[in-house]
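Notes from the pairing session

We agreed to fold both candidates in a single pass and log them together. This is the raw record for the first candidate, unedited. Please don't reformat it; downstream parsing expects exactly this layout.

Candidate A
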Amino acid sequence: MVHILAFESFDGGSHKQFRKTLTKYSAHEWVWITRPARSWKWRMAISAQEMVDAVFAQGIAMPDVIFCTSLTDVAALRSALPKEWRTLPVVLYMHENQVAYPTHDARDASFAFTNLQSVLTADLAIFNSKWNLDSFIAGIESLLEKSWDTTLKDIENRIRANATVAWVPVEMPPEDLRVLHNTDNGGRSIATRIAWPHRWEHDKGPELLLKLAREHTTKQNLRWIILGEQFSEIPESLKVFQDEFQDHIDHMGYVESKEEYWMWLGKADWVLSTADHEFFGIAVVEALFAGCLPWLPEKLSYRELLPACARGLTPMLTSKTASITSDIHEHLHMAQAIPATKRIDSLILSVI
């Protein structure tokens, strides 16, 4: 059994879900050092030293391999480790990259270059999607082209030589929630239910959600299931959505219980994404596993998550069919928790 010391500097949301699922299904032994999911810039700047200090405080024995995720500075982490640990292999899992992450402010390129140093310093960098890897390379190359004083060359090949792609392990829903229909027992058409399972933040496109709801709710007899984590500041468009469509909303709010969350996905016919970015999309994959059809943009990570037959679908043009759902599930086999974890386990073994 391989003993892994793992660092998660932003232990919330998809990062936390990934950590728990990977640990649950892995054949390796994991010890995690984590930091709370807040102040991401501070986490990138100083969490490496904080987490190594925690290793000393807890008296953790020397592992076989180090594992960390993308809001950790790998170069700083390696240098902070005890001298005899610095040659241990380090595997980096890239949940996101800071060059492609959308921002309304002027981009601070230092965080993107921290990602670059981490990718090149690790023994292996695992990206959670091809989109994540490709957008990172394109963004780094664009930043370097603007520099008049860099000697870094052939950066795409250097990154690709040290990188691979492995989808996030996603747990399957209970068996009895996987077959869904939008007709009643008499075969009569009833409302089409749309799940929107995203964080209530501007980068998830709530303005487009409101626009689509205004265009199609009445004409298409849509009902809405709005899930996802809420924060202290709720986008105004979601407040307006809740007010305007209160008679068409089956549920609106964060669901703490995973059983209840699956129950709501089990009631939905479609999963809608209006996101401005998606490096993988755990919530969308969960909804697809629950039997929802994809109402997704043909961009970002979504193209690789869907077979060709499932791209460009909308409730306005497509009837739900078992064949499309079956094709989606087959295509997403390597996102299922067990095979996805086995792949990551295997990649970790490859660096030892």
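Candidate B (folded immediately after A)
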Amino acid sequence: MILLALETSCDETSAAVVQDGKVLANVVSSQIKLHAEYGGVVPELAAREHLKNVLPVAQAALREAAVEVAQIDAVAATQGPGLGIALLIGFKAAQAVAFALNKPFIGINHHEAHLYSPWIDAEKMTADFAAFQPNVSLIVSGGHTMLVLVRAELKHSVLGGTIDDAAGECFDKTGKLMGLPYPAGPIIDRLAEQGNPAAFDFPRPLMHDANDDFSFSGLKTSVRYFIRDHPELMADRQKVADLCASVQAAIVEVLVKKTIRAAKRERVRCITASGGVTCNRGLRQALDAACKKNYFTLRLADKSLCTDNAAMIGILAERKLRANLPVANLDEEIKPGWSLA
């Protein structure tokens, strides 16, 4: 089976070609520079860029995979969640291709695809995926932070999620308060390596609560008031690094402790992590250390597959098709608020 997948849920236009569990091509066109001027993603601009880029990106993926359009056996696209006006571009483009070729089409939940990205190794789905089920998966990105119990392939349940600000949103918003350019998350990650994580004590929201939910709006507010009361610190490069390290430490500690606690409670032996914030070096190191201490197997999504990409969409779509799950109708619509069940 050769499958073409498209992803346009936010500000990356991506196309991938997947064959028998292997990613033949995964092309991503980022819009970071476009949105940096506005300090965040502007949906209308994102949609225009997707409209301009979706065909060239898809053609580039087919060229890289050395696949002709006539060889495509199925088509997939992100159906949700995401920015409605952005989702629409990739979803309708994929439906058009499927209609023109008279091939099966399937819409994919973006978050569900993240569950499988840690198992895409060396451009293919690893054979040991089934051996590490059940597992607890942390999905952490700009718009969502959640813990998911994966009981078996294509069978999962959400343990907890974001109440207000997600972890990635907190990184970007606190960075903006510090005067850092968008996206601030990667910059905080770099500066944190030069800072003291114990320099300033910020709250760890819900860390000791028994539930698996996340809330980072209180941390963001705490940083806002701290900067208001100590404006002189922002002129000191080392103090800014200390501030970045302290904010990152608070976010990471919440994510890691709640993940480990959920894994112990569910009696699994494997933890996975995916989503854009999983690129954060502090989080990757902390998860690795915590899993080793508690004897969990850890699978982290490759950094190239943490951010929005069509490879994970294609891998999941192919597995759903092989499991003979129903394909989508060509008149189906996007689901911007599609929650992971």
